[in-house]
Amino acid sequence: MRKQIPIKKEHLFAAGCILLLLIGYQLAFKKTIEAWQINKRLKDQFALAGSLSYQPGYLKRKNANLDSVIFHYQADTNSFRNNSISTISFISQKHGVKLSEVPIQDPSFRTERFIIQKMSFEGDFFSLTKTLNELQQTRGIGVIRGVSFRLNRLTEGKLFSDVYIEILR
Q1: CATH class for the domain made up of 75-168
Q2: How far apart are the C-alpha atoms of 12 and 18, rounded to whole Å?
Q3: What is the pLDDT of residues 66-76, one digit of tens each?
Q4: Are 137 and 129 in contact (CB under 8 A)?
Q5: Helix 125-137 crosses helix 85-94 at what angle (to 10 degrees)?
Q6: What pLDDT is recorded for position 66?
Q7: Is it the case that residue 90 has pLDDT exceeding 60?
Q8: What 3-state class would DSSP assign to 75?
Q9: Considering only 35-39, 70-74, 104-108, which range has the smallest mean pLDDT?
Q10: Closest CA to 165 of 138, 145, 135
Q11: DSSP 136-169
Q12: Domain spans, the chain
């Protein structure tokens, strides 16, 4: 039957190449070209939309959160010895705890950004923990950085507590 149809080998080769080109386009090149067009369209939309990293609402919320954290750490170092110590002594008296000592600021507790103030309290364990809890919740006096308890057997089992408060300069 093939001998009855007058087809040259060159025409069969050309038809085979065109057929392979169409099959290759459908299976591989078509999806690649579509992906390239989608990529180009999305890049153009991104360029028109501007920078997505600048989100004013997010930045405002972030700044408000950072300001509240910094405010919790910050106390006026000039008025600390007056206002903050009087606030701390009022809180301690409210819970039946005695503010026994506020030593002179130790230079080793100072950095270029923070001041750490040591205070000594005297009382029973539960009153001391209530005082520490209220000191932690009070804003504007600094943040409690460390606490140590010690028992003095000579003073009828009185418990002493050294509290280190960190203040932002």
Answers
A1: alpha beta
A2: 10
A3: 888 777 665 55
A4: no
A5: 140
A6: 84
A7: yes
A8: coil
A9: 70-74
A10: 145
A11: HH-TTS-EEEEEEEEEEGGGTTEEEEEEEEEEE-
A12: 75-168
